[in-house]
Design a protein that fits this description.
The chain is α+β, with helices and mostly antiparallel strands. It has seven helices and seven strands. Strand 4, helix 6 and strand 5 form a beta-alpha-beta unit. The longest helix has 21 residues. The N and C termini lie far apart (37 Å).
Length: 230
């Protein structure tokens, strides 16, 4: 099965959405922030499509596919935010893209509602995430931030996730910059990420009146480059 990692295209978006939804069905964070009784897959698909289109322009967004598959099914997805130097301001283009993303989400919510999203918990997470990153992100050169990486359950254990990671960690190594991620599972995920060079630096607790989840913050130092500061 010859796997290739390529930047996502418009034709990949439906497959990427299917991959994300299948892989995150039993995800602890997903099940905490969404009410499964009122969860709307249709609304979630629209939200993910908006995110995917934004990510095509603003992120390092890749998909994994089997080149021998005539249907070119998406087997895995990864989206990373590129590093920003400490103190670097937001460009006009970044502000515009952020506004467009926000406005499209507002329009979606007006038409589709929240689709089971627990808004209170979402903002608990955002606050805890901001606090954790403010504490951890002390490198002035910035961090490659892994926003999402996932592989279809039927394709896991075949090295696809590793290939998706290496597409960007190789960039980070060449740039001499660190990587950062937040895992919603301790076991087995953090052990897998440790093999890719990440180390656990913080456990982030998100608590909604006793209903709590933990996210595991991990950092990867650049390897084998003259630019490395470590």
């Amino acid at each position: 099965m010859p796997i290739t990692i390529t930047p996502i295209t418009e034709s990949d978006i439906s497959g990427a959405i299917a991959c994300i939804q299948q892989a995150f069905t039993d995800d602890p964070y997903n099940n905490w922030v969404f009410d499964r009784k009122t969860f709307s897959p249709a609304r979630n698909s629209i939200s993910l499509r908006i995110r995917c289109k934004w990510g095509m322009r603003n992120a390092l967004f890749h998909v994994a596919k089997d080149t021998a598959d005539p249907d070119k099914k998406v087997l895995g997805v990864a989206m990373w935010m590129p590093p920003k130097s400490m103190g670097e301001g937001q460009s006009w283009d970044e502000w515009t893209q952020g506004w467009l993303l926000w406005s499209r989400q507002v329009g979606m919510n007006a038409w589709w509602g929240r689709g089971g999203l627990n808004v209170k918990r979402y903002y608990v997470w955002k606050q805890r995430q901001a606090a954790a990153q403010a504490e951890i992100w002390d490198d002035p050169n910035g961090y490659y931030f892994c926003n999402i990486v996932t592989v279809l359950p039927s394709e896991q254990g075949k090295g696809i996730g590793k290939m998706l990671f290496q597409e960007v960690t190789a960039m980070a190594d060449a740039d001499g910059k660190k990587c950062y991620l937040e895992s919603s599972r301790d076991e087995p995920n953090t052990k897998i990420y440790e093999k890719l060079g990440f180390r656990k630096v913080k456990e982030m607790e998100c608590n909604d009146d006793g209903e709590m989840i933990k996210l595991y913050c991990m950092v990867r130092d650049p390897r084998g480059t003259a630019k490395s500061n470590t």
